[in-house]
Amino acid sequence: MSPAADGLLCAPLAIVDLETTGANAAYDRVTEIAVIEARLTPGGGEVSAEWSTLVNPQTTIPPAIQALTGITNAMVAGAPSFAELAQALHERLAGRVLVAHNARFDYGFLKSEFERAGLRFEARSLCTVKLSRRLYPEHARHNLDSLMTRHDLSCRARHRALGDAEVVWQFLLRAAAEHGEEVFAAAAQQTVKHTTLPPHLARAEIDAIPDAPGVYIFRGEGGLPIYVGKSVKLRTRVLAHFADDIRSAKAMQLAREVRRIEWRRSAGEFGALLAEARLVKELAPAFNRRLRRAHSLCGFSLVTLDEAAGDPAKTLRLVGAGDFDAGVLPRLRGVFRSERAALAALRELADEHRLCLQSLGFGEAGSRRGACFRHQLRQCAGLCAGAEGTETHHARVALALASLQSLAWPYRGPIGLREHDAEQDRGELHVIDQWRHLGTVRSEAELGELLHDAAIAPFDLDQYQIIARQLRKTGARVVDLAPLARAG
């Protein structure tokens, strides 16, 4: 038997299944837990203990979940809470490989529940969905029902924790028997996930990071920033960088080069997103690409005919980000990372609305007199050839630009967007004006200073997109700060 096979076959396992109030580990809670303590052995396997219990989630179970699992609010009313079970369960799982079908789900819920109970939980995990895909690639489906049908596995109670855990254990035994111990163990070993910290990072440094929203900064030799990231669960995300299943060369290189980790907690995801976008541009870390500063942002501004003095070429301007001021923003349509991208979008609009790019000053180089080449191809309605009037063409240009996003600021002045950190019982107010993040404050005194001293930063596309998404969310907590700004 190979060392890999022997290692897995000798490892103590905890086959785990959870029933929950929903799918989000940050907000939903566990309603039932089952653990089968077992070990794979040459030629089979042995179970040393089975344990399961209902759990009082301390919140209501949605009707759809009750219908699926059969676990009702009345059934869990007298059950222990997770906090009451946490210490004993933590000891039960200690030192075992956690095995679950869709292990990321169960592992994530356990981490969150243990975190609420004041315990840190880390374990190697084996996902039987991934194991099934690796061992049976000829099959398209690998959910638990498919495995039961395909391998003739029995289940005494589907969608109940112990019943589903028993199915997972049966699958392990069946897969080992069908493929042989060597092949099975090698596939399982490739599927097992755990983290191995680089020798230059102390475990205490990782343990100090809260599993809460915020940003983190990886620093390399000499303190040079090499990567900025964000997460709603900081410690979990940081540990994921050092998981032994990372595959890309870039990810492995990043993990090797980290020498120190800094982190900054935020009240919620919105604050973390804003901080990440700002820090990437300030620090320019080598491993970040997507949020790096774009120096050539631009958008289109439609000029009135009066302002254009009757010259169609002046009715549309390509405006650079340096000119995105309060006077331009209400007219601005579209925002692009480069002039090339902007002109490509304009050509698509011109094709759709039969606009004259030559008359607008965006056509081919050379004289703008006479019919343009696009008109000869019937792609232009003919302003250049006198086939339509300037006002008609201007109206169609306005209609075409209306399909692009508007950057007009929808408020009369600065606003604040509130976020609350329930765990620390503290809030943050993100101050925003003209799509620019001015800063984040935690007190009225800080707010007054910020509004008095705020300098409008250059327009940032990433900040704009983050803020626009937040404002579209139902329940976004907007505070009108315009009166305070005027008073200051």
Question: How would you characterize the overall build of this protein?
Answer:
The strands form four sheets. A five-stranded mixed beta sheet has the order 3-2-1-4-5, sandwiched between helices. A four-stranded antiparallel beta sheet has the order 14-13-12-15, with helices on both faces. Strands 7-6-8 form a three-stranded antiparallel beta sheet. With 488 residues, it is an alpha+beta fold. A hairpin with a 2-residue loop joins strand 13 (426-433) and strand 14. It has helices spanning 3-10, 63-69, 73-76, 82-93, 103-116, 128-135, 144-151, 161-179, 181-191, 203-207, 234-240, 249-257, 269-283, 305-308, 339-353, 357-360, 373-376, 390-401, 444-453, 461-472, 482-487, and strands at residues 12-20, 30-41, 44-54, 97-100, 125-127, 214-219, 225-231, 260-265, 298-302, 316-320, 332-336, 415-421, 426-433, 436-441, 478-480. The protein has four domains: 3-191, Nucleotidyltransferase, domain 5; 203-283, GIY-YIG endonuclease (3-Layer(aba) Sandwich), CATH 3.40.1440; 298-401, no CATH class; 415-487, no CATH class. Helix 7 crosses helix 8. Helices cover 40% and strands 20% of the residues.
